[in-house]
């Protein structure tokens, strides 16, 4: 099947999906599965391979998302029910002032996102974002959108995240140079993106029921021995420790992977300790013990609070998995390869081609990491033949990485995590998060290209 036909099918599939969800109001989960099946048929995937292709996409996505979302939701619920999120937000709002809250939370997300995967970081920070939004009396989008943008920027561009590390290995760039050049470019990108996020007038968007729209836990008053006692509120320091615990644990794994002897027992142990599911499981167990004791919850109540977090994120998990189904169908059909082959044939500058190929792959199949790795592989030979010095090679690799930053839409699991947590409809998610992620990506690339022009 020709590239033009494949690209036409991809465009048609996305249009049909948007019509089903936005106009017909069909469940996003059902619509994604229906369009995935139709796309598989239209692109010629063999009949007996369609269902395995769909289930593989679901399985691959849920394997990385379900444990993280479930444990992250439990940790957030414990902090929320104990009043900790609001206590932390109120304390820092008083220290910083309401005008500095959004910038401070975004800056914190940028730093915390360096060792932590995008989805893990967003899920851990979500209850804090919502607590700060309540304390500052602002729409959760005002804080949530720039925080998500900052997290995704460092995820796609900076080691030790898998996309930039693997891309550097393919193109021959040095990871130290990736950090040296990538960090200041990412900082400027995040600052510009922070101001760009202000263009979206949050008050005009009606948020759907979601973790962002849940009211703060009302302070309970109980009678014990005839004396009214107020519910204990978790201290801000304890909340901060619970948030930092899984992040520090993940950092142990990251540092161990980079500094310890490969395949050594110590490196393997550090990798196990620093795995996101283990880090979050540890944080949930600590919260179960520490917060439960602080709040004087009995064992039954502790269990009910943890289990109560799961129904709220069930839709997020199912829709994210369905997004993985659609993405895998697009990959298997060869639509992503058709995009990249078309761009390579245009003979444009390598740094521009790297960004555009990565962006096209990102738009066509959803995964930023896959887009970055595929684009790096396609351009490995042209990059080697160009005779670039180490700095130029690093900047070209960064351009490829920024191509995977933008165009987060309905085939991207991150799109569903952000929009469902923030309570955005698909239409509003495309108008806000998709546009903002693209602004971040274009800004990062233009800064990179500008530096490339100066050093060349």
Description:
The chain is mainly α and 456 residues long. Helices cover 77% and strands 2% of the residues. The protein has 20 helices and 2 strands. The longest helix has 35 residues, at 47-81.
Short recap of the structure:
By secondary structure, the protein is mainly alpha-helical. The chain contains 20 helices and 2 strands. It has helices at residues 3-23, 28-42, 47-81, 84-96, 101-113, 118-136, 140-157, 162-171, 175-197, 236-259, 265-273, 276-295, 299-308, 310-333, 335-344, 350-365, 368-385, 390-403, 413-422, 426-455; strands at 221-224, 227-230.
- Count of individual beta strands: 2
The secondary-structure class comes to mainly alpha
How does the major sheet shape up? 2 strands, antiparallel
Task: Estimate the global geometry from the Cα principal axes.
Answer: globular
């Amino acid at each position: 099947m020709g590239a033009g036909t494949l690209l036409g099918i991809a465009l048609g599939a996305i249009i049909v999906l948007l019509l089903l969800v936005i106009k017909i109001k069909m469940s996003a989960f059902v619509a994604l599965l229906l369009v995935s099946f139709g796309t598989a048929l239209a692109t010629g995937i063999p009949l007996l391979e369609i269902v395995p292709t769909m289930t593989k996409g679901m399985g691959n996505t849920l394997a990385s998302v379900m444990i993280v979302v479930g444990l992250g939701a439990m940790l957030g619920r414990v902090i929320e029910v104990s009043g900790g999120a609001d206590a932390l937000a109120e304390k820092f709002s008083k220290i910083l002032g309401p005008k500095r809250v959004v910038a401070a939370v975004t800056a914190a997300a940028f730093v915390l996102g360096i060792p932590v995967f995008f989805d893990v970081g967003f899920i851990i920070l979500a209850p804090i974002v919502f607590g700060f939004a309540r304390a500052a009396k602002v729409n959760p989008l005002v804080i949530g959108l720039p925080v998500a943008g900052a997290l995704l920027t460092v995820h796609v561009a900076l080691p030790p995240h898998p996309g930039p590390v693997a891309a550097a290995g393919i193109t021959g760039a040095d990871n130290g140079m990736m950090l040296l050049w990538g960090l200041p470019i990412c900082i400027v990108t995040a600052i510009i993106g922070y101001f760009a996020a202000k263009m979206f007038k949050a008050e005009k968007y009606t948020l759907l029921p979601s973790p962002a729209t849940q009211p703060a836990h009302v302070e309970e008053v109980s009678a014990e021995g005839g004396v009214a006692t107020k519910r204990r509120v978790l201290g801000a320091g304890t909340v901060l420790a619970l948030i930092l615990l899984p992040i520090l644990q993940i950092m142990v794994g990251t540092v161990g992977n980079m500094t310890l002897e490969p395949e050594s027992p110590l490196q393997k142990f550090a990798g196990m300790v620093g795995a996101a599911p283990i880090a979050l499981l540890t944080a949930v167990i600590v919260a179960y013990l520490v917060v439960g004791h602080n709040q004087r919850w009995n064992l039954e109540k502790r269990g009910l609070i943890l289990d109560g977090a799961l129904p709220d994120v069930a839709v997020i998990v199912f829709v994210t998995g369905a997004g993985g189904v659609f993405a895998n169908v697009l990959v298997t059909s060869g639509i992503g390869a058709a995009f990249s082959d078309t761009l390579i044939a245009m003979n444009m500058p390598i740094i521009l081609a790297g960004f555009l190929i990565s962006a096209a792959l990102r738009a066509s199949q959803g995964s930023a990491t896959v887009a970055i790795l595929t684009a790096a592989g396609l351009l490995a030979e042209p990059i080697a033949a160009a005779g670039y010095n180490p700095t130029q090679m690093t900047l070209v690799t960064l351009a490829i990485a920024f191509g995977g930053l933008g165009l987060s839409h309905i085939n991207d699991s991150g799109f569903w995590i952000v929009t469902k947590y923030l309570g955005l409809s698909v239409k509003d998610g495309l108008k806000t998060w998709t546009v903002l992620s693209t602004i971040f990506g274009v800004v990062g690339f233009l800064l990179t290209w500008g530096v490339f022009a100066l050093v060349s």
